[in-house]
Amino acid sequence: MNELRTGLKSELTADGRFLIDSETAADVAAFFEQQEFEAGGVRYIVIDPGHGGKDPGAIGHYTVSGEKKSLNEKDVVLQTALETADMLSARYPDKEILLTRGDDRYLKLEERTEVANSVELAEGESMIFISIHANASFNTKARGFEVWYLPPEYRRDLLDEERFGEVDSDVIPILNTMLEEEYTIESVILGEKLLASLDEEVGDISVNRGPKEESWFVVRNAHMPSVLIELGFVTNQEEAVLLSSSSYLKKLSKGIYNGIVEFINDYELTRGYSD
Ligand SMILES: [Zn+2]
Q1: Tell me: the pLDDT tens digits for 138-157?
Q2: Top-tier CATH class for 41-270
Q3: Where are the domains of the chain?
Q4: Has this prediction a pTM greater than 0.70?
Q5: CB neighbour class for 166 (10 Å; exposed up to 12, middle 13-18, buried from 19)
């Protein structure tokens, strides 16, 4: 494994940007040049609907014509994941589309990543991992979708609840697990494709909260680009109404599907992004 030298001189600015000095920048550039990236296609697509079973995830309460209703994150993300997986299976009969859960069941964190970890990739093959969640916030005005892809520097920060007040707290261990898989340039590109295609599907009704990331440089070449999508806020009245409608979930699934297809098209055309 190639690694960037440790002890990088870097600084996190108040607006959340990551600054590196010119020496580090040169190292980063050299790192990319010397990498021999394996060519190959995406063989496995793992879709991970969050929560399930005894764990409902975030619960939203909303009102439709005076009638009080509630919405569980676990149901919203399962339906979206199933529809996305269906479209992917139809499009890619030669790829494996794997779901961490295909029904309403509880999974321990290790069971969630077991699927991905049990796959043995042949030379040049890669896998993408997409975790799907819905958000909650004490700020009932918060709404919109977002995609997470995080550098390892975030690990310590993720545990800082104050800084990440708006992050679904049960997502933190999953994000941390994703970080074990390394932050790759592919994750950034996958995340950007997903945001763009979600924006195309629902950007006029929802809000694109953008990517959640801070730095660009890559620590290792990993075979598993991983992102986490937050579909929207179940704690926002209008968004809860949207997230409880199958037609809206279909749009979100279409957005996720299109983003994955775009990623794969480019990835397989360029034989990996990193060179
Ligand atoms: Zn969640």
Answers
A1: 999 999 999 987 544 444 34
A2: alpha beta
A3: 41-270
A4: yes
A5: middle
